[in-house]
Amino acid sequence: MTFTDMLMLLVVMFVLFLSFSEVDSDSFKQNAGAISEAFNQPPPTSILQNSSAIVELSKTNIDFSTRGKNVGFEAKNVELEKIGTSDSDIEKESESVKKESESVKKEKKDEISKNLESRIQKSLNNEIEKGHMQLIKKEDIVILRFPEKVTFQLGSADLNQGIESVLDKVTDVMNSVNGIKKIVVAGHSDSLPISNYEFRSNWDLSAARAVSVVHRLLENKLIDRNLLVVIGLADTEPVLPNTTYANRAANRRVEIKVEF
Questions:
Q1: Which end of the chain is more exposed for a tag (fewer CB within 10 A), N or C?
Q2: CA 190, CA 132: separation in Å to the nearest integer?
């Protein structure tokens, strides 16, 4: 085979590619005849006598409007499933995780609270039995209640000497418990008005008593002062109606609320 023959074959091959890429019967006929002449072959004929091997596409049942579609399989509109879950499922799962997290937090708070209660009862059992203080548990808060009779003189914000050692023990116990988030010291009074050179009202008196307790707690250098909060509530949160002398005495108090 000469170089010229090779070039001729390449040209024929490109002509074939070109003719097959365009579905045009007339072009195919023309190219087929030229190719036949190049190879010194007679024009192609059908296997049926007197029939052409080239069939007009217009005479077939081929639907040109669907070229490139539905090839090899039936086309269907397939909706892709969403990855993961639906919005409602995500919300339910998120709510479940939130509840589980809250449950874990509550269990942890209960554990810390029980630990503090146990230590207070062990260290201050005598003071509790004598009525110098009360230990109260409300949900996730531990309240230490000190009545006025053991903490202050009537109308005064100066601590009695006997209560100072009790507050020192309380501070030691709180320092030994991890997980305390806040220590709120609240002063309370009865409903009888007070007005003198030292206190303008029960607001002044209740706040000053709370401050006196905090100052004593801060005598212990180990306590975290950032946890301490002072509140004066006057007669806004009585434990009993201010109708008798005994009830008013019970309302005059200082409370240490430990939060977790």
A1: N
A2: 19
Helices (H), 23-160: 25-38, 87-123, 125-130, 148-151
Q: In what order do the strands lie in the sheet with 228-232?
A: 134-138, 141-147, 253-259, 182-188, 228-232
Q: What is the DSSP letter of 160?
A: P
For residue 158 the two structure tokens come to 């100066």
pTM here is: 0.62
Bin 159: left if φ > 0, else alpha if -120 < ψ < 50, else beta.
Answer: beta
Distance, in Å, from the CA atom of 232 to the CA atom of 209, rounded to the nearest integer, reads 8
- 131-177: pLDDT as tens digits: 999 999 988 899 999 999 999 999 999 999 889 999 999 999 999 99
Measured from the Cβ of residue 201, the count of other Cβ atoms closer than 10 Å reads 14
- Indicate the helix (H) or strand (E) that contains 8: helix 3-21
